[in-house]
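Subject: complex prediction, re-run

Hi both,

The earlier run crashed halfway through, so I resubmitted it with identical inputs.
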Amino acid sequence: MARLLLHRLGGLLTTLFLSSIVIYGSLYLAPGSPENVIFGSRTPSAAARAAVRHRLHLDQPLPVRYWDWLTGVLHGDLGTSMVTGQPVADRVGAGLGTTLLLVLMTMLLVVLFGLAMGLTAALLPGRVDGAVNALTSVSVTVPSFVASALLISVFAVKLGWFPASGLGQGFGGKVDGLVLPAVALAVLSCGFLARVTRNAVRDQLEREHVQTALVRGLPRAVVLRSHVLRNALPPIVTAVGLLTAGTFASTLVVESAFAVPGIGQLTIQSVAQKDFPVVQAVALLLVAAFVVCNAASDLIQAVVDPRLREAGSTS
Amino acid sequence: MTAPLLELSGLTVDVATEDGGSRTLLDGVDLSLAPGEALGLVGESGSGKSMTMRAVTRLLPRAASASGSIRFEGADVLGMNAGELRRYRDGGVGLVFQDPRAHINPTRRIGAFLTEALVRNRGVGRREALARAAAVLAEVGIDDPQRRLGQYPHEVSGGMLQRVMIASVLLAEPRLILADEPTTALDVTIQREVVAILDRLRRERGMGMVFITHDLDLALAVCGRVAVMYAGRIVELRSADTLHERAAHPYTLGLLGSRPSIDARAERLSAIPGRPVSAFESGPGCAFAPRCSFATAGCESEPPAPTEFDGGLVRCARVEEIHAARMEAKA
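This time it finished cleanly. Structure:
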């Protein structure tokens, strides 16, 4: 188990390091030079341009700049925003809490409703299963931007239950404002998780070891919990891990739709403004969210199923 | 005569098919087992022997339905409610499955598997349950039981896992053990050992046993009586010590003839022609008739009734003639 942990941690750091090179390099391959962002529509003198390029270290070769940036990041210095002049860490930090809360609320909804629907469908074959199946078939085809538009027009505009954009004051106001974005993000994932859960539980219900548990006279609830659900967990955990990582990416769209001041909105703004240091920081953050989610789901699976614990040493 | 431990009469199992029809898998099985008795249930795959065991434990597939009667110590098994069924499965009957690898939850430790029923059903403390489990593991011939309790199923061999399965049944101290081909998934060398352990511990504890196998010799070695099944029916029921010499049903004779023997000089083993059929595939008459070398036109149309013959029960219309012919050939 310790070996698997080390193995996963090593993989995580390697992925982050490689993706930091890709992120840093690809932004400078993109058309348009950073100093143009600062000068805007003005045409600077050669001396002014050279001064700015020197200030941004653009007169140095790319590997040197990457190295300076990387050592800065490792010391907690993400650079300064080219647009506002604020430290990048402050800008990212301001939105991070909101986005984490949004992802948390989304995943709570997904796990709660996805598991409930999947379990109901698996345990009640026939009509109930068919109804849930129909529901999830629709829900997995609704992308978050469509859900956002629908939710805003019904619950914010017509019924006025939740704000259509922005967040209220304090933690309560924040949660209140994040309900609709969370639902918009959860719709598709809920359907997906419900299907994964249904199939995983169905598969386990037919396993021979479940018959053994039944024929020993164990109560049905115990058989379901200790044998069916427990053994159905690995695919469900994988799905939750992937969906959580995917939700981080989807916040880009939904935060813009609901004007939520989180990382997603910051990313869209910064890309539009070509605010390179901010884009680099949030891109790296998204990659980190992905690899952390995947590593976490792998570790949880190894806890659930002992047969997966040795996997790390062979791969 | 003591009251039977298990009594099946007219047990029939039908399974609903996709197109709304139904297929018969078991057709009127009558069987009676005294307390402490061991009975072998022998037949080819599809003959209904496993289905009989499933019906006795009410572990039938969703689409299947059982009719007739199953009585365990006088109680009607098919009519039990959920609570009664759980008590019956807990302490009345224990099942040893064919493939322990598939039948033991792979994600939980052996100790958890062995103690689960004691802890959940009988309120035995975890520590006490583990101590009992270790004692029974030692009895089924497992060294270092303490270490085994902490291991996972994938960390031990198939033979050891089948001993664990047997230990789990013994821990519940049932009055009846159903062993469904308990050694088929094991190496030949380990088969004898496992059967010997099962046989000894069953006798020591005075448990009844239904031993299901396709290996006639194995059944004869551990059982007092043997029932031979074909196409969902019992075709011959006879005590083990007379089966070799006085088997009467053509199918049993075929099974006996298809075994290798150390003193026979036959060049080839005789095989039963054709393939085994299921109950629903058979015609109106005797299900074995199409493969039987003694069959007449009457066999194909009229189902034979079970008749007393030579201390056993045989389902064959021509049993007398066949027997007479065999005696003549011997003489």
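Chain A has one domain: 88-314.

- K.
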